[in-house]
Amino acid sequence: MDSTSNALNWFEIAVNDMDRAKAFYQTVFGIEMSQEEMMGMQMAYFPGDMMNGKVAGALVKSDYHKPSVDGSVIYLNGNPDLAHALGRVEAAGGQVVMPKTAISPEVGFMAFFIDSEGNRVAMHSNH
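Predicted structure:
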């Protein structure tokens, strides 16, 4: 891996109900997600541009993707202040399990939530 590349370039969040999960993430982050079926999987895409070195990812419903609170943890971008997006989690059908917490002045803040599908997900922001 070259020193200018991202450690993460793609992520997938498993879902049971695509419509519910898509509505959850669109509401929490104030984004629009395009949706399609690919290789027998339903996918809804987070904004991103992997072809230009930016991290990208999707919600995925398939026989190979199962939501889990114990799976890998991804940190979604909550900048400029994750408190705004975190404040929308419960109204969108999720649960905040770790409030906005300072990591360090240099690194910023983090929080954990359970999404509408039962996945444990994290957010990070600089402020």
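Summary: The longest strand covers residues 95-104.
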